[in-house]
Design a protein that fits this description.
Chains: A alpha+beta (260), B mainly alpha (395), C mainly alpha (174)
Oligomer: heterotrimer
Largest interface: A-B, 54 and 48 residues
Number of domains of chain A: 2
CATH topology of the largest domain in chain A: Alpha-Beta Plaits
Structural class of chain A: alpha+beta
CATH class of the largest domain in chain A: Alpha Beta
Strand order of the largest sheet of chain A: 8-1-9
Order of helices and strands of chain A: HHEHEEHEEHEEHHEHE
Largest sheet of chain C: none
Distance between the termini of chain C: 60 Å
Order of helices and strands of chain C: HHHHHHHH
Radius of gyration of chain A: 19 Å
Number of helices of chain C: 8
Strand content of chain C: under 5%
Helix content of chain A: 25-40%
Shape of chain A: globular
Chain lengths: 260, 395, 174
């Protein structure tokens, strides 16, 4: 129902007509059909259908497991920085000149092989584990894994104890140290709570891709459903050699890498 | 028969001055907490790498001490050492006070202390932290009941059960507190089951130090003798054993870590690198907090005198703070290994030793926690007969 | 006058002053025009509200809370009762034609909440004025709300805390 591209105008109109109709069924059909087309515009670039949004009034289910495949070989430093910038723009976090306390939902990690001197970099963010340590340790249940695999912080019940930050092996989380203003309406963030990459859940629910994926070089980041075996992502993960960061911890992250 | 316990009625100005001092420190600490909450944690030294700072050092120290403060009560009720029965009430009320002091610091450091009600109503039972909240509130309740069985003649027959309950509960509580760190798989400095027994042994030491500190302060404040030479001597020997146990678990913890190649990095960082943590570990925890107090207490005469006991206790408390500081801050300072064997950098301090400079508000809040515990204990002594009655001179 | 009588009247007076805030609006509010000291929330700019305004005055916090959990934990993103939707209709512009934030005391939520002295922390995290394209689309599109029976089907059955809410919603859709 969101109009970002001009073509989406049509979908919004269709939704509204269906709603005015009062017919739920018609609305669902209309929404689902449009959703399949609109995100397809970008996804078809990879050749297969992939992410299809659920209807807006239905709950996320275990049927899906959203994930990412990041090909480190396809990234230059500047490419990674573009992904970071896209995330900042999308979710409204920024550099305020306090490098130690500023939030970083996604960051460029520079890696040098000590033995060979080989250097490369990759984007690092919440790995959306199937067994997230942050959710295990959270005393109130504010850190949780949504049924479709996206790990989130419910800031309404986060008390700001930061135990999840102690537990996360990827340093993926940030604590909001200051009062904030003018947050994005779809990405609420506020003082005294912990936050991290949401896999752009507001976009995913609408059948769009995360902002970083859109900003990444062609084919360097693939977003999709790990459970959908006919989908691009699951097929890639099945076919090519992929790696999990800290695979030894057995957390089954939803974010996978190639060519580390 | 002379009564065994006394309400605090006659005391000199030392007591009043201490109470007033504690109230002032508490007020300043609450002001600091308000300042931190108003501005956000930006005004503290904590950041996205060192997420737990000085307030947590104080809080964990107080909570661990609380469990240990119950030592004398447990010795009398559970192990039937009647020599300690006179101190059982004081020991129990001190344990409750220390725990509340620690919890207050922990709570006031939260990002959203206004959401206390959420912490009390939303439980994630997979979280050891949530279990700890239950362990803490349960401890206060059980020790409260235990105190009741000690003080009300009509329920004395339940004293033994309550004593055992409190004893078991305190062991679980310290296990739980240690496990907060032990369950952190990704942090190389923690992730060890031995954190739990290490915390139990440490709790014995710090709890005894607080007990001795309060007892001797009350001797000064009442101008009476509360400890017989015999009891002083027994306490002296107990503390030596507890320190030895603590050192043993510390040694095993670090030696087993040194054995595993993946942990040698963090061990070198803590034990050998010359960082602030190396100094605090060897100088604070080992030398000041363990070896010197042990040497003092090994002198039968000086070690069981008021001066010797108080001196050793102060050193043990300082060493204890250093110990917890090394565990909490040092453990976070050592970088997480995202890509083992690779050199890693980023704008988020990946691959670097995180630096932490505590700020004044944090320190003031932490100290206020100790004052809350001491004020509560002092005030309680005036309300009900918790103190042992003085012993005759020469005994 | 007897001192007992004086005391009685004094107490009566105090009680009346104390509860006047609660009683007077009920007595006066309907009969005459709204007294000057009552809050005057600004008019909304969208179409019909998600529910009857009277109902909303009483239950908006429950509706918002409920919707918040549905969206946060299940990803249900219908517009009805979403904070974003409320904000987009109840946005207020300042003299320069710009939307004001909750820092301005003319903000829709503040007009009542200041009066009732009820602190809300929604806007520690949430945007308090319409910002992105979606909000604008919602504003331009009149009333895109689904009807009430749909919403009620989403509410968990047997949730006693929500029973009142449930009943109200079901009846309100007519």
């Amino acid at each position: 129902m969101i109009s970002l591209k001009p073509d989406d105008r049509k979908s919004e109109k269709a939704d509204r007509e269906a709603e005015n109709d009062g017919s739920r069924r018609a609305f669902l059909k209309g929404a689902a059909a449009v959703m399949a087309i609109a995100p397809g515009m970008t996804l078809y670039a990879y050749g297969t259908k992939d992410a299809v949004a659920k209807p807006l009034d239905e709950a996320a289910t275990r049927k899906n497991r959203w994930g990412l495949l990041i090909d480190a070989a396809k990234f230059t430093d500047a490419d990674v920085d573009r992904c970071v910038a896209a995330c900042q723009k999308e979710n409204g976090w920024k550099n305020t000149g306090h490098p130690l306390t500023d939030a970083q939902w996604i960051r460029r990690v520079n890696i040098t092989n000590k033995k060979t001197g080989e250097h490369f970099s990759l984007p690092m963010m919440c790995q959306h584990c199937a067994e997230p340590p942050c959710a295990d340790v959270c005393p109130t249940g504010a850190s949780f894994r949504r049924d479709d695999g996206i790990v989130l912080v419910d800031k309404h019940i986060c008390i700001g104890c930061r135990y999840c930050m102690m537990a996360c092996p990827y340093k993926a989380r940030s604590f909001v140290h200051e009062h904030l203003e003018d947050q994005k309406s779809y990405a609420p963030r506020g003082i005294g709570t912990v936050e991290s990459c949401t896999m752009c859940v507001h976009r995913v629910d609408e059948g769009r891709q995360p902002a970083c994926v859109e900003a990444a070089p062609q084919g360097a980041m693939v977003f999709g459903d790990l459970n959908d075996r006919s989908g691009k992502l699951a097929q890639l993960v099945e076919r090519v050699a992929t790696q999990q960061v800290r695979a030894d911890l057995n957390l089954d992250p939803g974010v996978r890498y190639r060519n580390i | 028969m002379a009564e065994t316990y006394k309400q605090l009625r006659e005391y000199n100005n030392i007591f009043n001055v201490l109470l007033v001092l504690h109230v002032i420190v508490i007020a300043i600490g609450l002001g600091a907490a308000f300042y931190m909450e108003h501005h956000g944690h930006i005004v503290t030294g904590m950041n996205n790498q060192i997420v737990w700072g000085l307030p947590h050092v104080f809080a964990v120290f107080l909570i661990v001490s609380a469990s240990g403060a119950l030592n004398l009560a447990s010795a009398s009720s559970v192990f039937s050492k009647l020599a300690y029965k006179r101190f059982a009430r004081l020991s129990a009320i001190l344990a409750i006070s220390l725990l509340i002091g620690g919890l207050a610091v922990l709570l006031l450091d939260l990002g959203r202390p206004d959401r206390l009600i959420i912490a009390m109503t939303h439980y994630n039972f997979k979280s050891i932290f949530a279990w700890n909240i239950i362990l803490y509130t349960g401890f206060i309740t059980i020790v409260g009941v235990y105190l009741w069985t000690m003080m009300d003649k009509t329920v004395t027959r339940y004293n033994k059960i309550a004593g055992w309950g409190a004893f078991i509960w305190r062991l679980i509580l310290t296990t739980g507190t240690g496990s907060i760190f032990g369950f952190l798989v990704a942090r190389e400095a923690y992730d060890a089951a031995i954190m739990a027994p290490l915390f139990i042994a440490s709790s014995f030491v710090y709890g005894m130090a607080f007990t001795v500190w309060v007892l001797i302060t009350m001797c000064q404040a009442t101008g009476k003798r509360l400890l017989t030479r015999d009891v002083s001597n027994k306490i002296r020997e107990l503390i030596i054993i507890f320190i030895a146990a603590m050192l043993y678990f510390t040694a095993v913890h670090h030696l087993t870590n040194l054995y595993a190649a993946e942990h040698t990095g963090v061990e070198r960082f803590i034990l050998w690198s010359g960082s602030v943590f190396t100094w605090l570990f060897w100088g604070g925890h080992v030398l000041i907090g363990s070896v010197i107090p042990m040497l003092i207490l090994m002198q039968p005469n000086f070690g069981s005198s008021r001066a010797g006991l108080i001196f050793a206790s102060v050193l043990m408390l300082l060493g204890g703070m250093a110990h917890i500081y090394v565990i909490i801050i040092g453990g976070q300072s050592y970088p997480l290994a995202l890509f083992p064997g690779m050199e890693v950098t980023s704008t988020f301090q990946d691959g670097q030793f995180a630096h932490y400079m505590p700020s004044l508000p944090e320190l003031l809040l932490g100290i206020a926690g100790i004052s809350i515990a001491m004020f509560m204990t002092g005030f309680a002594l005036k309300l009900l007969p918790f103190l042992p009655s003085p012993v005759a001179d020469g005994k | 006058m007897k001192s007992v009588v004086i005391l009685q009247r004094l107490i009566l007076m105090l009680v009346m002053i104390t509860f006047s805030g609660a009683v007077l609006p009920g007595v006066v509010g309907h009969a005459a025009a709204q007294p000057a000291w009552m809050p005057k929330p600004p008019k909304a700019v969208g179409g019909k509200c998600d529910a009857d305004p009277k109902w909303m005055r009483k239950w908006h916090m429950k509706a918002l809370d409920h919707k918040r959990d549905e969206t946060m934990h299940k990803g249900i993103r219908t517009r009805k009762f979403s904070l974003k939707n409320c904000i987009s209709c109840h946005a207020v512009k300042d003299d320069n034609g710009k939307y004001i934030t909750v820092r301005d005391e003319r903000h829709f939520c503040r007009t009542c909440h200041d009066y009732a002295a009820v602190r809300i922390d929604c806007f520690d995290c949430h945007a308090s004025r319409p910002g992105d394209k979606m909000d604008k689309a919602a504003r331009a599109g009149g009333n895109p709300h689904e009807n009430a029976t749909k919403m009620s089907s989403v509410i968990r059955k047997g949730d006693t805390a929500m029973a009142d809410f449930h009943k109200y919603i079901a009846g309100e859709g007519k």
